[in-house]
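Sat 14:20. Reprocessing the chain from the morning session after the first attempt stalled halfway. Input below, unchanged.
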Amino acid sequence: MPPLSTTPVYFGNFLVTSQVFHRTAHSFALVNIKPLLPGHVLVSPLRAARRLCDLDQAEVTDLFLTVQQVGKMIERVYGASSLNIAIQDGPAAGQSVPHLHAHIIPRQSADLDAQGGSDAIYGMLEGEDGDVGRHLWESSRKRPKFPAVDDSARKPRTEPAMAEEAQRLAQEMTRQHL
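Finished this time. Tokens:
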């Protein structure tokens, strides 16, 4: 299937057009190369702003309305009862791609009990598992500006697998009552 957009979409320096499943005037939503839990997606401004404070009012409004709309769809499609919505706003906060993005992670009761409870998601986001930049770099085989860390337990998803999920979620967005 062709990507949702024929206009190239970049997440930092990474071309992610085939991973995009929803686009608005100022934002886009994309599937995650290494989701922490099934349905973990990202929402980002189209403009490669590094920090939330770099967005203008229209971009902030659009970003958060898009997070809300995508969150509703993800919760419905993945049968979640709750969501984690997180922004790591700058490198010291754990941001690994210098392009602002919100994580939307569908949650269910007791889904992380084996990892220590529901708050384990925060460690996952800040640890190796949540290093989106490194995972994108590994998949594109470009050298990062930060040290690589072994993450052999979780493999990056293939481009066709992410494109298929993006197509499915794009169809679900059209079913969503916005």
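The helical segments are 57-77, 120-126, 132-140, 159-175.
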